[in-house]
Prior knowledge:
The chain has about 525 residues and is of the alpha+beta class. It has helices spanning about 1-10, 15-20, 25-35, 35-50, 60-65, 75-85, 95-105, 175-185, 215-225, 240-255, 260-275, 290-295, 305-315, 395-405, 410-420, 425-435, 440-455, 460-465, 495-510; strands at about 130-140, 145-155, 160-165, 195, 205, 210-215, 225-230, 315-320, 325-330, 330-335, 345-350, 355-360, 365-370, 380. The longest helix is centred in the middle third of the chain and has 16 residues, at about 260-275.
Amino acid sequence: MYTQIKILKDDGFKKAQVARKLKISRNTVDKYWNMSLDEYEKLKLESAKRSSILDDYEDFILHLLNKHADYTSSQIHDLLIENYLDEADIFKYSTVNRKVKYLREKHEIFKESKSRNYQAVKDLPPGFQAQVDIGFSNQYDHNGKAVQIACIAMVLSHSRYKYIKWYDSNPTSFTLCDFHDSAFAFFGGRPKEIVYDQDRTLVNDENFGDIIFTAQFERYRQRHKFSVYLCKGADPETKGKIESVIDYAKNNFAKNREYINIELFNQECLDWLKRTGNKKPHGTTKKVPAEVFSTERNHLIPIPDAEIKANISNESISRTVRKDNTIVFKSNRYSLPLGTYRPGISVDIKLMSDQLKIYNQGDNKLIATHDISSAKGKLIQKKNHLRDHSKKIDELLLSTAVKLGNNSKAIDFLERIKKLKPRYVRDQFSLIAKTVKNSSENEIKTAINYCLDNNLYSATVFKSVIENGDKLKKLKYPEKEVIIPKKYQIEINDRDINEYERLAVNDYDRSQN
C-alpha cells in the first residue's frame, strides 16, 4: 500500500484520488504521503512488536470474514460481545474496527459498498415524532432452508431509540395494530405524530391527498389520537431515520443469523437492541440512544397497559391458524382443538381481562379460552386440545357395546381390545361401530364368538368375519383359524433339504479356495 501511494503520488494524483483508487481512507493516505522509506521500515518494525488486545480473537474474526465477507465492523463487534460475554468490556468498537480493517487488508477480504443519499432533516423536539416502516429478510434454518420473515420497526426521531418486532407471516392491518401496542408498551408511551410510508396495511387510497385508511387502522388511530404524516411515493428522505433502522436491523442483527423460530428470533432481537441497537452511539448524533431516551420518555404521552388491553378487547383481532393447530399472540403460541386447522383458515381473538378468547370467524362461536401468559416463546396448551375427548374411553366402550348387543361377551371383547391396544382404542371402536351398521344380530354374535374363541381381539378381524361369515361353518372353526384376504394368499414352494446341504458344501469349498 505504501508503494502504491508513492507511485500514484509521482504520477500526479491528488490525495483524494489516491484514496478512492486504493479504496482506503484519506487519513491513511495522509499518513504515508510524505513518509520516507526509512520511516516506513521503522514503523513496520514497531508495529510487528506491538501486540493487539484482539490478537486472541483474530481467528474468530477471520472465520466470520471468510464465511461472509460483507460482515460490517459493527456487526462483528456485536458478535464478539455475544459470543464472549465475560470479556465484553475489552471489545471497544474503535479497536474492533481497526482490527477488522487490518485483517481485510492483510488477507485481501473486501466487500462491495452501496451508498445512498439522504437529505438532512432538522432535529425534532423530544416526544413529538416517531417513524414506522416494514421490511423483509431472508433467513436460513439449520437445514439451510430459506425462510422469509417480516419486521416492523419504530424509531423515536429525537433520541433515535428503536423498537423492532419480527413476524413469520405477511403483515396485515391487525399485525400493524398489534405492533403499535407492543411498541407503545416498550417505550412506555406514544409520540404526538407518526410518519408512515404508503403501505396497503394502513392506506386504502391516497385520494388526491384525502387519505383513506384501512378500517382497522383508522379505528386504532382515532382511539389513540395520534396524528399521521404519510410520505409521498419515492420520497425516502422524509423517513430516512426509519429507513436506516430497517437497514440496520437486517444487516447488523438478522444478516447470517440462523433462524429457529419467530419467538426466539424476537427475543434475540430484544437482547441485541439492549446491548447494541440502542446502546451504541448514533452515527449522526454521536449520542447513545438509550441515554437520550431516558429524558425523552418523560415527553411521551402515557398509555397504561390496561388501556391497551381494553382497546384490543373492544375489537376482534384476526390470527391465522397454523398447521399445528395453534395461533401466535404476543410471542406465545396458544393451542386450538385438534382439527381446527384448514388451509387459509383464520380465527378472531379478543382480550377479556386476563383471558384470551378465540372465536370462529364464520359463526362467532367460542372455540377456546386461555389465560394470557406474561412469558415469551411459550406453548400454552390445553390437554383437551391434544385429541378429541368429547367422549371418555369408558363411555365410548359402553356405547359401542350397545351396538354389539350389550351383552357380557360384547363387553368382554371390547375390554380386551382396550387393554391390548390402548393407543388405538378409539380407532378400533370406531371401525367396529361402522362395521355393525348394516349387520344382522346373528352376524354380530357369530363374529364376537369367533374372536373370543380364537383370542383374536382386533377390529379388523371382527370386520373380516362379518364380511366372510357365509364361508365359515357356524361356530365350528379350526383352532386359531384366521381368515386371510385373497390379496395376501401367497403359495410358497417347499425346497428339498438336500438342496440346502449342497449349497452349504459349495460355500465351504469356495471359502477354502
